[in-house]
Design goal:
With about 220 residues, the chain is mainly alpha-helical. It has 2 domains: about 1-80; about 85-220, 3-Layer(aba) Sandwich (Rossmann fold). It is about 50% helix and about 10% strand. The protein is built from 11 helices and 7 strands. It has a 3-stranded parallel sheet with strand order 5-6-7, with helices on both faces. A two-stranded antiparallel sheet has the order 1-2. Helix 1 (about 5-20) runs antiparallel to helix 4 and helix 4 packs parallel to helix 6 (about 110-120).
């Protein structure tokens, strides 16, 4: 949905440094691949790398420090135009809702970070009344069933993954996430994975971006 212009990875590192300064200074911060990852999965990786025992206290301390840095970093990224909303996403979400489909948010970000990112880049968070987040499970492939269950609770009806559920993403991990719960998958080459890499993962639908909203809606059957 958006490119934060590096705000996310910067806030993760600064948040970790604030939460665990002694550990942070003990070695070089590892290179993290955020594409399709979950915040809780990255946290586990960092805890393992720095030999930090997991606890609810340590987890919440890390998230709070991360969020402290994330908000100003996102605001600066939006003002400076270092980050951006990805092509066609606003129009696509509006059209999906206008066509009487239900929209939710499935993301590796923790709930609080997802809200900050969307609001900082002028998305309407109310368009996503249900979802699954990086603090629901560290394994992205477990998030699909959580999102479907919450959609059913929110809207009071059942959804059949292979017929009613689409997952939109721009990484191979997003495609794997959709496959894990039986959903259809719409892949767009707007992230770190190029068009050819996504094509090799065989999504149901593949587009360079969502700029031609009418084409996307027509080909996916969401129009």
């Amino acid at each position: 949905m958006l490119d934060t212009g590096g705000a996310g990875i910067g806030a993760l590192e600064r948040g970790f440094a604030d939460a665990f300064p002694r550990h942070y200074q003990s070695r070089e911060f590892p290179r993290l691949n955020l594409g399709g990852a979950t915040d809780s999965g990255l946290m586990r990786l960092l805890f393992e790398a720095y030999d930090i025992a997991w606890s609810e206290e340590h987890e919440e301390n890390f998230y709070l420090r991360y969020l402290d840095h994330l908000k100003p970093a996102l605001e600066d990224s939006y003002r400076s135009k270092a980050g951006r909303r990805l092509p066609g996403i606003v129009e696509f979400v509006d059209a999906v809702i206008a066509n009487r489909h239900f929209s939710g948010l499935l993301t590796g970000n923790i709930d609080r970070a997802a809200r900050l990112k969307l609001e900082s880049f002028q998305f309407d968070y109310r368009q996503f009344p249900f979802g699954a987040y990086g603090d629901d499970h560290h394994d992205r492939n477990q998030l699909g069933p959580i999102a479907i269950e919450r959609a059913e609770q929110t809207h009071g009806r059942s959804f059949t993954p292979g017929e009613d559920v689409y997952i939109l993403g721009d990484t191979v991990k997003d495609i794997d996430c959709a496959r894990a719960c039986g959903a259809r998958v719409i892949a767009v080459a707007t992230g770190a994975c190029d068009f050819e890499t996504l094509a090799e993962a065989e999504p149901d639908y593949l587009f360079k971006d969502l700029t031609d909203c009418e084409l996307v809606l027509r080909e996916t059957g969401l129009g």
